[in-house]
Amino acid sequence: MSRQGQMLQAIGEDGIVYTWYRRPYNRRVPTQRQLELQQQLQPIQGEPPPTPQMLNPKQTQLSELGELILIRCFQSLPINDRFNMEHVSRLFQSASKRSWNIHKHVVVPPASLKKGTYSIDIRYLFRLLMKRCARYCLTLQINSMLKQDRIFRLLHLGYKVECLQLESLDQICGSELEEIGGRLPNLKILIIIKCKFHTNTINGFNLMLEQFKRLIVFAVGRCANFQSELEKLPRSLRILNLNLFDVVNSANAIGNIRRQAPNITMLTIECRSLDVVNQVQDFEHLKVLSLHYSPILDDVITPDLFPVNFSQQLKALELFVVSENFIAMRFRPEFFPQLEHIKFDIIENPTTNYNTILGKLVEFPALRSISLGVYTRKKKLICRAEYLNFVRRLYEKGRLEHLKVNLLLTTEMAIGVFEHCPKIRSLYFYKSSNPNNIEEEEEYFRANEFIERFEQLKLNKIPPTSNSKKVVMLGNLFKGTKLEKGNEWIKCKENIRGSHVLRELFVNEFKEYENNNTRK
Hints:
InterPro entries: LRR_dom_sf (IPR032675). By secondary structure, this protein is of the alpha/beta class. It has a domain at 64-102. The protein is built from 18 helices and 19 strands. It has helices spanning 32-41, 62-75, 79-85, 90-99, 124-134, 151-154, 174-183, 202-211, 250-260, 276-279, 308-311, 324-330, 354-357, 384-396, 411-420, 438-441, 447-457, 500-519, and strands at 6-11, 17-22, 105-108, 113-114, 117-118, 139-142, 163-167, 189-193, 217-221, 239-243, 266-270, 288-292, 316-321, 341-347, 369-375, 402-405, 426-428, 471-474, 490-493. Helix 9 links the parallel strand 10 (239-243) and strand 11. Helix 15 packs parallel to helix 17 (447-457). It is globular and about 100 Å long.
C-alpha cells in the first residue's frame, strides 16, 4: 500500500462513491548518466520560453474561464501568498499548480521564517517548493532555512536548476554540499554568501566541485569556517569570486585554482596575503582582476610586476592601496589599451606631483569608469587642487559613465560632468569625514545652486524612460532640498554601489562563453 499511496473514499450527495488517491512523495531524480543518454537520443533544440496560455474567445469554454483568470492572478502573487491561497478551494489549488509553469526564478525570502518556524505549516513550504517550483525553475535563491532542514530536500526535484544562490544559511554540512553536486550536475552558477559551514566540510566541498561539469560562475563570500583550498575546481570555470578569502595557506589555494581552472577570465580575491599580487600574474586569460586588501607598496614592486602581455588584455582592474612608484611605472596607456574600469587608492605624499603621475590615466583610450580613493596621514589633504584637476581632465574627455571619488567636487565640476559626459550613469562624491576639511568644503558644493543649474541644463530635454537609466548620486548631498529623493533625471541612493561597467563585463563574458559552448 505504501507504493500506491493513501486512498480515501466518500459517498457524495448524488449517491456516487468518489475515490481519491494520494501518491507518496518519493520521486526519482535522473542521474548524470541518464541525462546524458537522454540528450544523445533527443538533441536539445532552442525552444522558446513557456508563456502563459492566452485566452481565445472562440476556444475558451465558459467553465474554464474562472480558472484561467485565477492563473493570471496567481502569477502576480508572491510565493507565500500563492501557497496560502491554495487551501481555499480545489479550483484555487488547480489554478495555482498551473501558474507555476512559467516561473524561471524562485526565491525563498527571509520573511518566510517567523518565530523559529515557517510562515505556513513547517516543512509544507519546502514540500510545495519542490512540487511546484524546483521541477520548473532555472534559478533558485534560498535566503532562509531552519537549522533542522537540509538543502538537498529542497533540491530533490531541482535537476533543472542552473543558478543556485544560498544566503545566510546556518551550519551547512559536507553531505549537503556533496548532494548539491550530485543533484545539480548541470549547474552553471553557484553563489554562497554569509553562510556558516560545519567545521569538517573540506572533503564535501571538493566532492561537490568535482561533480560539476558545466559550472561557469563560482562565488563564495563572507562565510564562516570556510577553509577549503579548492583542490577540485572544474575546468569549465570562467568567473571566480572569493570574498574574505582567509584560508591558512592562500598561496597553495591560488596555485590550485590556476592548475584546476586555467581558463578563468574574471578573478576577484579579497585576501590580506602579499603574495597574491605576484601569483595572479600566472593566469593567462584574465580580463577582469580585483585584488582587495592586497596593497602594492614599494617593498613588493619588482621589474616584472604586471608585465605588458598581462596588462594589455585586462578590461577592468581593481586594486587596494598602490604606491606612487607603481603608478608611475605601470599606469601608462601602452600597458592598458583595453582597460574600461579602474579602481585604486593612494596615500598622499606632499612631495609628489600628482598632475604628472595621475595625468597618464587621462590618456587611457578605453577608460569609461574610475573609482579613486585619496587618504592622508596628515590632518587634511594638501594636494586637493591636483586631484580635482585630474578629475576635471577626466570628465572633459567625455567618455565617463561611472565616477567615484572620496572628495567633494565643486558645483561647477558636478555640472561639468553632466555637460561633457552624456553617458554618465553614476556620479559619487561626498563630504569628508575629517572635521579639519569641513570649513574648507563648505564653499565647494552648494546643493541649491547645483539644482538650479542642472534644471537649466536639462531644459526642453527628454528625461530617461526608466529608473535604470537615471544617474545615481548620493542623497545626503541634497538633504533639505527638493532633490533629496531624486527627480526624473537623478536617482538618489544612501549607499555607494559598484560600477555598472563591471556588471556589463560579467554579463558579456558569461554570454560569450555560453554562445561559444552552444556552437560546439
